[in-house]
Amino acid sequence: MDTDGDNFAEARHTGRLAPLPDHRHVTAPWWQELWSRHTHITTPLRRRGLECDIEFGLSAYIVRVSLPDDTHLIIGPPQEPASDRPPGHPEGWIVTHEHPDGQAPFEVIYDSSPATGSGAPDRPEAVHGGSIPPLIQAIDRRLAQLGLLQHTPERSAATPPRVLRGYARRDAEAFLAEHPLPQEPLPLPGLTPFLSALAAAETPAEVSAITHQLAGITAPVLDHIARHIVGVALWRGQDHQHTPQAQRLLREAAQSIRAAMVKVAEADLENLRAEYAPSPEPPSAARTITPPRPPAPPGSPKPGTSLSR
């Protein structure tokens, strides 16, 4: 659990985070293990100045978030029925806003838990399941409305890609267990015949034949990949969760794949034009020709004849 260890070290030593809970369990290995399983929730909230703790609810561990007005948030999986998922990775999350005296009714801020079969429809958040970013966004919106959000941190461009991908691997672990994906690279198309033929080609026509055939057998594969990338860009349709920059980059990537084959075809045609339909040579500079002198009128002196006697 290297990534979780990195998160716990960051929680202890980064001054930008709200402090850790002040109780004797903080140094206990079992508590640190539970904390590391929930840092994908606690770290974003602590960056907002909110103090968090881990407690046991009715049947599963929950995150308690202290708010400036002495109320608190409870973030956890559905407690009834109990989830068999590991701590920190349930099928969905429920966030409630509660008062310390328990007299005022609690407010459900977010609920992405699946329906229990009671006939009640799923809440809109149910499509997010155990995903954390929509949960944090819902908390941000509600606390901002209540004036309880001290500050929202800016996205840090300095976070190393290794750390970001480590967070993602951890948070997608349960999802990938349900949706296993191929681990080995996809088989490469056999291009040996094309490389052998290219080494033996001697004319533009022969190179064109190779290029045209190569483009013909690879274009469907590349277009298939491009369509999949467009599908990623359109994740969840109009309600996508990509940032505008990420969506733009994905669309540009798909367009670049398709544009690559167009450029290959254009290059091939340029070679064929040069071979079979070359541009005419520009006309050479016209020579200057002196027109003949017109004949002299009758009675005029001949050239070189003096008019004086």
Order of neighbouring strands in the sheet with most strands:
1-2-3-4-5
Categorize the overall geometry. elongated
Secondary structure tally, helices: 8
Unreliable spans are: 1-15
Could you tell me the mean pLDDT? Answer: 80
Give a count of the beta strands, DSSP E runs of length 2 or more: 5
Beta strand %: 5-15%
Q: Percent of residues in helical segments? A: 40-55%
Topology as H/E string?
Answer: HHEEEEEHHHHHH
What is the rounded Rg? 37 Å
Description:
- There is one protein chain.
- By secondary structure, the protein is an alpha+beta fold.
- It has helices at 2-13, 29-46, 133-146, 161-171, 173-178, 192-200, 204-233, 244-276, and strands at residues 51-56, 61-66, 72-76, 94-98, 107-111.
- It has a five-stranded antiparallel sheet with strand order 1-2-3-4-5, covered by helices on one side.
- A hairpin with a 5-residue loop joins strand 2 (61-66) and strand 3 (72-76).
- Helix 1 crosses helix 2 and helix 7 packs antiparallel against helix 8.
